[in-house]
Amino acid sequence: MNWLEILTDATQRIKAEVTSLLKNPIAKKTYGIGAGGDHKKHIDLEAERVLVETLADHNLSFTLISEETGVRSFGSNPAYYVTADPIDGTTNTLRGLPFSCTSIAISKIPRLDTIEAAAIADLFHDATYLAQKNQGAYCNEREIIPALTESLDEAVIGVDFNTYKVTKLSAKLNSLLTATKHLRHLGANALELCYVADGTTDAFIDLRGKLRTTDIAAAVLIIQEAGAKITTLQNTTLKNQLDPKETVSFIATANATLHKTILETIEKA
Ligand SMILES: [Mg+2]
Predict the structure, then answer these.
(1) Which of 57, 70, 179, 230 is deepest in the core (most CB within 10 A)?
(2) pTM of the model as a whole
């Protein structure tokens, strides 16, 4: 199966569809709550429709695990799981804040540690990240590598604080927040993980306990294939089920030294 070709086709078609809807008020129309617990918007459902259509055009039988519509099988004998967040960063997308992506992961087992191929395409810029197990990670055909940054006063670190439990979370991260000079959060976690993978930033941390596995399935492989690191707060491998209701917390870093520093700093709080 030529997954990179199929995933490239899918991301390009999704991107074209999303771009065509950007200034259209219908894009914001809401259709109830999606499988992952967020409001389903017209633009999310259109992106997912284009994904399913593309995979069908490639004659694939598959089980779709989607943030929007949950788990559904297509074709006669589904051999692959396609885990997708058709749009990660819908709020940014609808407001024209240029930071969002489409995210697609392929696996034979619905678990975070079994992804075989992955694609994440920036919906506002010309950057498509692709990875295959044991074959490296690429952005627009250029092999990507993470940063060498090791110290907290030089690192640019993303932290997701989008939770009503922000007081508790910031207390947990107090030492890290105090020691880190450059903090960011851009609003699309899959793409922020690609930024760690390609050296744009140095780390990204989401300990809210509410990020869905469907949101980061593709990013986990891209991070690992680029040579960056992603683990739980307990420094274990992410092995969660791929399911729109399964949530995950993680620490992703450019390298092992920065990873150790961040874990140790968090423990001090
Ligand atoms: Mg989404």
Answers:
(1) 230
(2) 0.96
